[in-house]
Amino acid sequence: MGEYPERVLRRVVPDPVQIQIILGSLLGDGRLEGCAGARRLRITHHQGRAEYVWWKYERLGTFAAHAPLLRGDQLEFHTIAHPVFDDVAPLFAGSDRKRVRELLAPLGLAVWMTDVGRLRLRAEVFLPTQRAAALVAS
Hints:
single chain, alpha+beta
């Protein structure tokens, strides 16, 4: 008999783009939930930022547990529980996030700055080759 899909997905290693979105989100508005072995990431933004929420959801792909849902004026989704969140949890436990900032590539920095409202990610203003280069560079 086959394994439950979520148990199989827990063995999938996030790609570099997904790691950057995770790190940038955790420096911004993302939150880890759950205890060791069952941690997941919750993404929540105001419904006016729906395009951005869907962008994160699409990039996190198979790690998203469900499509974004509207709760009040907030659009949110969470990931499946995954070992990567146990790996990054200690980096966010203290007040010194210097190590996290050292791990950020340009995409992670952009996600962080977008979460805190200092940037607005708008993929449509870039040429296809620029979008591809940004994802590869991350």
